[in-house]
Give the backbone structure.
Amino acid sequence: GDSVTQMEGPVTLSEEAFLTINCTYTATGYPSLFWYVQYPGEGLQLLLKATKADDKGSNKGFEATYRKETTSFHLEKGSVQVSDSAVYFCALSGSNFGNEKLTFGTGTRLTIIP
Amino acid sequence: GAVVSQHPSWVICKSGTSVKIECRSLDFQATTMFWYRQFPKQSLMLMATSNEGSKATYEQGVEKDKFLINHASLTLSTLTVTSAHPEDSSFYICSAPAPGETQYFGPGTRLLVL
């Protein structure tokens, strides 16, 4: 079945550091890929998505590129802020919108130190 | 964006009792809702898909009689954990896809069975 393997945390960085959170997947067909973020005390929110190979999703300074050849969707940000502290989940779905069943990675807790 | 609420956010109960968790889409109608379970330091695992006006679809390994799901209206789905035991203690999260959009997640319900 489908699966998502995500970089284990926790990850602690200083403000303005470069961030990479690795995510690889196994799936049949051509899934859509997502990054969700969960801020303390809140529900998961869609951060960005990519629906086909070589697509780049971006939002709030975060980027991730759908790499079919390496089955990866790594999350990057050039300069992190304290407000980026949260738990990040990589996920895949058979739907472009992610409105069908989602398969999640284990989540990576990110803490940014001022 | 759209809002999904869950109630209660926290519940503690005695072993053998039943607990009901509500999931509401506050500003959109959802014919489908999803129920996830999250163990500490683990991924969100889909338990079942709740369908308005029909039976829920359970994932393999999830006990239908243990986790009763009722999707009574287009804005409300409930998950009842029947005869709860300590191993049912977990974080339960619901989500609802807005029409033509991504899934919106509730903030989760933490269940502790003593």
Summary: The interface with chain B takes residues 4, 34, 36, 41-46, 49, 89, 97-107 of chain A (CB under 8 Å). DSSP finds no helices and twelve strands in chain A. Chain A has a mean pLDDT of 93.
